[in-house]
Design a protein that fits this description.
The structure holds 3 protein chains of 3 kinds.
Chain A (H helix, E strand, L loop, with lengths): L1 H11 L11 H5 L10 H9 L3 H5 L12 H5 L6 H13 L12 H4 L6 H11 L2
Chain B lengths: L1 E5 L9 H13 L3 E4 L21 H13 L3 E3 L2 H16 L1 H11 L11 E3 H17 L8 E4 L9 H4 L9 H8 L3 E3 L12 H4 L1 H17 L4 E4 L2 H10 L6 E3 H9 L1 H5 L1
Parallel strand pairs in B: 1-2, 1-3, 3-4, 5-6, 5-7, 7-8
Chain C lengths: L3 E6 L3 H4 L4 H9 L4 E7 L5 H14 L3 E6 L2 H14 L7 E5 L1 H5 L5 H21 L7 E3 L4 E4 L3 H12 L4 E4 L14 E2 L4 E2 H14 L3 E4 L2 E9 L2 E8 L14 H5 L5 E2 L8 E2 L2 E2 L11 E2 L5 H5 L4 H5 L12 E7 L1 E4 L3 E3 L16 E3 H8 L20 E8 L17 H15 L4 E6 L9 H10 L4 E4 L2 E7 L2 E8 L4 E7 L1 E6 L1 E3 L3 H8 L26 E3 L9 H19 L3 E3 L5 E3 L9 H5 L5 E9 L5 E9 L9 H5 L5 E3 L4 H12 L1
Parallel strand pairs in C: 1-2, 1-3, 3-4, 6-7, 6-18, 7-10, 18-29, 20-27, 21-22, 21-27, 22-23
Antiparallel strand pairs in C: 5-30, 8-9, 11-12, 12-17, 13-14, 15-16, 19-28, 24-25, 25-26, 31-34, 32-33
Helix pairs in contact in C: 2-6, 3-4, 6-19, 7-8, 7-16, 13-14
Classes of the chains: A mainly alpha, B alpha/beta, C alpha/beta.
């Protein structure tokens, strides 16, 4: 798991040590109440090697990638990149795709734009 | 003025209104948008992880193709703009990504970020000019109170998108003013609409979209405009119907008298 | 050939642990010109100094090399030692084998080798040293204080009390600075005006103090003890000597819609105005940007109502030139602009205010007469949210400052406490990252806000403020409570970071005083010389050197004054003899040196030289004023013909050192 932590840090480009624990990311996050771990916790838990708990959390699929945490972080820690890297660490594993083509038909409605499905595919599976 | 134009998947299907009125208006303004030949998907989401190269390649193809035509590349869909603009920056500034992407693509001339990527609104502001646009307006939207909805993708990360002030943007408000209507500033205009969680967690997407429209309405907006098909979907389908939502190009076509002529 | 003595210091184990001092003194003994070489435990001790003096006499030494710590530390010490033994002090060279050798090496062999090389270079230089004699320059016994806030006022008062005349130059129409806008002061909660205005009056009445309000420093020439300063006295269109400060004009002026900067634009003033009741000097000023008479030539109401005949629409800016011995920078600070922080909706709602605006809203002389009312609708706010660290502690870039602004924790505690005290029906939240309250009675003050006044301190940060239906919807993290908070607030108060006043940067250029990347003035030494700039004769007072509260500012202001007094009591200053000089035979009059000289020490004269066949050639050559030259050496590098040289650091000496190192 420690190797994995290093990979997550490397591919995200995030240095968790820059964090000053102000919590502005979690103050800005519109998906806060949908996530079991919150943006500031991602930074703290990666720093402290608690990657496994994050990889098992539902929050990685609730992040909107709206970049509010990234934009407003006073220390340029950019938590959204870390959340995405943790999600990638999960879906890149064999059989860990979060979204499968069979699920698509029931998700569709008349107005749903193509980009929603394409985006979800890109985000949730490898 | 002639630009390469990248419409993207949704503008050919569910987001046709964004595309049709966008093209018709530019034509009326004397700007030619030439659709890129054989364009592919932009990639849909910008991959933030440094080692995700393959997902960026289709954007690079579009960028290289505009470069080969010697034209600036204009985008209209917020998501396409976000992805293409950021990938372009990577190709110009990130040696690691540039080398790998070019190795994959094996283009005749390697791509190194030469193309200038412009959003449709930037063309209106900087090439046409909002003052000039105002003069071209045939049917001013006088008395209409319109809220600009920016969402996330046009503005953030501001260091990369370089589009507008990420917390207090003004470009769509200036656009609304040019059309003769009254812009309504509301704080939720740069907060997320719920995005693609509409697939994963519809009630949440609905709450988020509802908050946006609620805030716009409470600040006095009577309608809302957007540049993003996904925002359009969330606000319209999940937003509780509090306010009508339209693409900004539709409004533009209306003010220029283009829409009426075609209808 | 010089007769050189070499003295290698152990500095206890500081040098001796990493450098074989015996090997060094043995090796250097073999250098040409060295007649004596030794090592000793503490060369700077009395015994060490006595030994140096004894050996100078015994061997008739003409040059001395001390291998020890940095010359910054003990060069002066050893020069004095040698001078007492009859040696010219400029015949002493220091080889720094501590900071530049033993402290940075681990391997003794390498350290020893390097120490020998450094010693050899110093010996090579001493071979070419010549005795130098320092000249003297007189001291103008008057000081200039730039900035008339509490820092400048206190410095001026202390200098004046010692009997020296001092001018205060203040860009605003009145002295007093930021403190005039503050309501109460922490941690004692005494009224700022009550303790400041007597000092302003003292300054005005002190016969040694001359207040040049509505004035700016335009140019500075000269050097320590002899500065010549050009000051622009901006036209206020009112004769200061005639105006009685009755204020009638400020009531009758028909132009009523001028944003009142004293209340930060929260209300309006007239085009002719006196900033506030206790202004010093209490003289009206016409704002040329708004005055109808000055803009269109039609009005003249103020002139008609003025019984003293003080209004003068024809007044022009005036430039005056004055001589000073010392200059004190006291240019202060400003809160940063909130333009880049609109996640807090500062531009969207008048009920989102900065802390300084909040001071005005609490102040009896403020726009609401001291009753806390919402700027939007004049109603009484019930829920207030204070946000700390807005723009402070950011990681650089254009958004925010990397430093802690230092004063915000305390004034926010004060605001929260005062609000709860005056309005017990309020709910007050303070969002903090860390509460930083070092200082006498400071933490106790903050704890009182929490424990006695029930202020809700929440560890976390506000992420978004949404104005809606007359409320400010605050979304924030509560890190200790593990939740995201949503508060419907009536007002939001932003503790904006503070930054140096914009005038500081151009002033620093004029003074050749250095600044850090944040435009705070740099002190000569961060610990040991905190109120002096590295430029001789320039001193620092207050927040222009770094964020400070009032007690710290007053303490530093006094310290700066004592340094100024220490300078002004001297009749003469000893000059640095290591100055540039020009070899007239080689100078081609190109002006390259003149252009790079930061002190204006170089001038040109036309001089007659003897040419071939009894002819006379007139040539333009450079001349250095040794009293002005500070020995920086810029001209010696710029000179294309090698005519400029620096005494004590000649090109030949430097090359000899380099040769010795490369040997």
């Amino acid at each position: 798991m420690s190797d994995m932590t290093e990979i997550v840090k490397r591919i995200s480009g995030v240095n968790p040590r820059k964090c000053m624990k102000c919590g502005k990311c979690s103050g800005a996050c519109p998906a806060y109440d949908e996530m079991d771990y919150h943006p500031h916790q991602f930074v703290d838990m990666v720093e402290n090697g608690r990657l496994e708990e994050l990889m098992n959390s539902r929050g990685i699929y609730m992040c909107l990638s709206c970049f509010a945490c990234l934009e407003r972080c006073p220390r340029s820690v950019e938590p959204s990149k870390l959340i995405e890297a943790v999600r990638l660490a999960v879906v890149r594993q064999q059989g860990k795709n979060h979204l499968n083509p069979e699920q698509i038909p029931e998700l569709l409605d008349e107005e749903l734009p193509q980009q929603a499905i394409t985006s979800a595919f890109r985000k949730y599976r490898k | 003025m002639t630009y390469s134009y990248f419409p993207g998947c949704t503008l050919k299907t569910k987001g046709k209104d964004l595309d049709i009125w966008g093209r018709a208006s530019m034509e009326a303004l004397g700007v030619t948008l030439e659709e890129l030949p054989q364009w592919q998907c932009c990639g849909a989401v910008y991959p933030q992880a440094k080692d995700e190269i393959a997902a960026k390649l289709s954007s690079v193809r579009a960028l290289a193709s505009a470069r080969d035509l010697g034209q600036d590349l204009v985008t209209l869909c917020s998501a396409c703009h976000h992805v293409i603009k950021r990938v372009n920056r990577d190709m110009a500034q990130d040696e690691y990504i540039r080398t790998r992407a070019n190795n994959y693509l094996n283009l005749e001339t390697p791509y190194t970020g030469e193309t200038k990527v412009l959003h449709y609104l930037e063309v209106l502001r900087d090439a046409v000019g909002f003052d000039k646009l105002k003069e071209q307006v045939k049917k001013p939207l006088t008395g209409r109170k319109i809220g600009a909805y920016y969402g996330c993708l046009l503005l953030r990360p501001s260091k990369e998108l370089e589009f507008d002030d990420p917390e207090n943007p003004t470009i769509i408000e200036d656009f609304i003013r040019a059309l003769g209507a009254e812009p309504v500033v509301y704080a939720m205009r740069n907060e997320c609409c719920g995005g693609y969680t509409t697939l994963e967690n519809k009630p949440y997407a609905a709450r988020q979209a509802g908050k946006v429209l609620e805030n716009a309405a409470n600040c006095g907006a009577e309608e809302v405009i957007t540049a993003c098909p996904l925002c359009m979907y969330n606000l319209k389908e999940n937003g509780g119907g509090r306010l009508p939502v339209r693409y900004f190009t539709e409004l533009l076509a209306e003010a220029l008298g283009v829409k009426e002529a075609e209808a | 050939m010089q007769k050189i003595g070499v003295f290698v210091c152990w500095c206890g184990s500081n040098i001796a642990a990493t450098v074989d001092v015996q090997a060094v003194s043995d090796a250097l003994a073999k250098e040409p010109g060295v007649v004596f070489s030794t090592n000793y435990q503490y060369m700077c001790s009395q015994a060490g100094q006595d030994m140096i003096q004894e050996k100078i006499r015994e061997f008739g030494l003409t040059g001395v090399v001390v291998c020890s710590c940095s010359p910054r530390m003990h060069e002066t010490t050893f020069r004095k030692t040698c001078e007492k033994a009859g040696l010219n002090p400029y015949m002493v060279e220091i080889a720094n084998i501590r900071e530049q050798c033993s402290w940075i090496h681990k391997d003794k062999e390498t350290g020893t080798e390097k120490a020998i090389i450094l010693g050899r270079a110093a010996i090579a230089k001493v071979q070419l040293n010549a005795p130098l004699t320092a000249g003297q320059s007189p001291v103008v016994k008057r000081a200039l204080v730039i900035g008339g806030g509490i820092a400048g006022i206190q410095t001026a008062l202390d200098i004046a009390d010692a009997g020296f005349p001092v001018d205060i130059v203040e860009t605003k129409p009145t002295i007093g600075g930021k403190m005039t806008q503050i309501d109460k002061t922490f941690p004692t909660l005494d009224c700022a005006a009550c303790i400041l205005t007597p000092k302003m009056v003292d300054a005005a009445q002190n016969e040694n103090i001359n207040i040049l309000s509505y004035s700016e420093v335009e140019a500075v020439k000269g050097f320590v003890g002899n500065f010549s300063v050009t000051i622009r006295r901006k036209a206020r269109f009112v004769d200061e000597t005639k105006c009685t400060g009755c204020g009638l004009c400020t009531e009758k002026c028909p132009q009523k819609k001028v944003p009142n900067e004293f209340n930060l634009g929260l209300d309006n003033r007239r085009a002719i105005y006196i900033p506030f009741a206790q202004a010093v000097p209490k003289v009206a000023t016409i704002d040329p940007n708004y005055c109808t008479m000055l803009k269109t030539g039609k009005c003249g109401v103020c002139s008609k109502v003025c019984t003293a005949g003080a209004i003068d629409y024809q007044q022009k800016d005036e430039l005056i030139e004055r001589e000073y011995g010392a200059i004190v920078a006291a240019t202060g600070f400003n809160p940063i602009s909130m333009d880049k922080f609109d996640e807090f909706a500062y531009s969207q709602s008048p009920d989102v205010v900065t802390s300084l605006e909040f001071e005005r809203l609490m102040n009896a002389a403020g726009p609401t007469g001291g009753t806390l009312l919402r700027p939007s609708d004049g109603t009484h706010p019930h829920t207030l949210v204070f946000v700390q660290c807005v723009g402070s502690r950011c990681d650089g870039g254009e958004k925010g400052k990397p430093y802690c602004s230092k004063i915000c924790c305390m004034y926010t505690a004060k605001h929260a406490m005062l609000t709860r005290e005056k309005y017990p029906d309020t709910d007050v939240y303070v969002f903090y990252i860390d509460v930083r309250t070092p200082g006498k009675n400071f933490d106790e003050f903050y704890r009182r806000a929490v424990e006695e006044y029930g202020v809700h301190y929440i560890k976390g940060m506000v992420g978004k403020v949404v104005p809606e239906n007359g409320k400010l919807k605050v979304q924030a993290s509560d890190l200790l409570g593990g939740q995201q908070l949503h508060i419907d607030a009536d007002m939001v108060v932003l503790a904006a970071a503070i930054e140096p006043d914009k005038s500081a940067r151009p002033l620093a250029t004029m003074l050749t005083a250095s600044m850090d990347t944040n435009d705070f003035f740099t002190e000569a030494h961060p610990k040991l010389r905190p109120v002096e700039s590295p430029t001789a004769g320039v001193f620092l007072s207050g927040a222009c050197q770094g964020p400070k509260d009032i007690p710290e500012t007053v303490a530093q202001a006094g310290a700066a004054a004592s340094k100024v007094i220490g300078l002004l009591v001297k009749d003469h200053l000893t000059c640095n003899p290591c100055v540039a000089s020009s070899n007239e035979m080689m100078c081609n009059g190109c002006s390259a040196c003149e252009k790079v000289c930061p002190y204006g020490a170089i001038t040109y004269i036309d001089k007659d030289f003897r040419g071939p066949n009894r002819t006379t050639l007139r040539r333009r050559v450079a001349q250095v004023n040794p009293a002005v030259c500070q020995g920086c050496g810029a001209c010696t590098v710029a000179c294309p013909s090698g005519a400029m040289d620096l005494k004590g650091f000649s090109n030949a000496q430097i090359m000899a050192e380099v040769d010795a190192i490369c040997k």
